Amino acid sequence: MGYSIICHNTSHDDRDVVKRYYAKGTIERVFKHMKGVLSLRPVRVWVLSYVYAHMKICYLSYTILSMLQYHIERTGISG
Asked: For the whole model, what pTM was predicted?
């Protein structure tokens, strides 16, 4: 148990800032899962369009894997 202090200098509502701050944990878990499932390595490109393309491919791959996992669990199919 502890306390957290979240300071911001934006025009956004305080509650929205706190909600977004804690939502980053979800994003971090997704990236951790993506790195494990997809065996991602560090991106070693510096051209911005290549980085965007790499991230889009990763996101699309993760989306497909998540949909498959959802349908497998929903239908009760086991391997």
From this structure: 0.45
Residue 9 lies in a domain: no
- If you compute the radius of gyration of the chain from its CA atoms, what whole number of angstroms results? 17
How is the chain classified by DSSP, letter by letter?
A: ---------SSS-HHHHHHHHHHHHHHHHHHHHHHHHTT--------HHHHHHHHHHHHHHHHHHHHHHHHHHHHT---
Span 67-74, average pLDDT: 83
What's the pLDDT at 37?
65
Amino acid at 67: M
Residues of the domain holding 24: 14-75
